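User: Hey, quick favor. My workstation is busy. Could you predict this chain's structure for me?
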Amino acid sequence: MQINTDLLQKLNAAATRNIDSYLQKMLTASAEHGNFGMQMLDHLHEQLPRTSCDDCGKCCNSVSIFSLEYHRVIREIMITWKPERLRRLVQAIFRLELRQAEIGKDERRRRCIFRDDETRVCLVHPVRPFACRIFGLLKTDGKRECDRVKDLRTPETIITENYLISLQEKVLENSESYQPFPGEEEIHFFPFEFWFFRHIFSPERALQIYREILVPMSSPLTRLWQKHAGPTT
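Assistant: No problem, here it is.
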């Protein structure tokens, strides 16, 4: 799938002109969402084993998250980040091409907007989404996605797929869903950038950006939707 470079250029140009307006929309949308679901989400996150790793950052690529998790992250940085830092975040979100990375042979990823490679830390670690918390947990077959991940407590906790599903079902019930491609079922999981564009533009515009920029920029997403591939317009 090819990236719609014209659309990408339009996004960059729009950001230059309207950065402060977009920042306000981002903050307002999450502020208006209120505290609904936040305590529940934190409680569910806490029910996963606590782990540590050596912060190599190989897994810190863009992941799909719930809308509720998006609002949780935004509300956290609203409280803890200074205005200029928030402004730089919005600028960075629009420059999607600057976070395009080659990961192995013929593998593309978008690096996570909240990964600081200089300090090797996650900038939103306390409120990181399920996808990040689940990575590397000990499975029923005794394996992990990454052998650098270790449980902080002993004995190590084995996590079953059914347990993970049961936790996330409660979040799913309180999150938005959209149909990414005509004729397909609605889904609840989208990259952070999708939710950002959904709130500063519209769901329709965000879905276009998802299909024509975000999916082609990520090999896993591309493979997932490969059957829908066609010329971008």
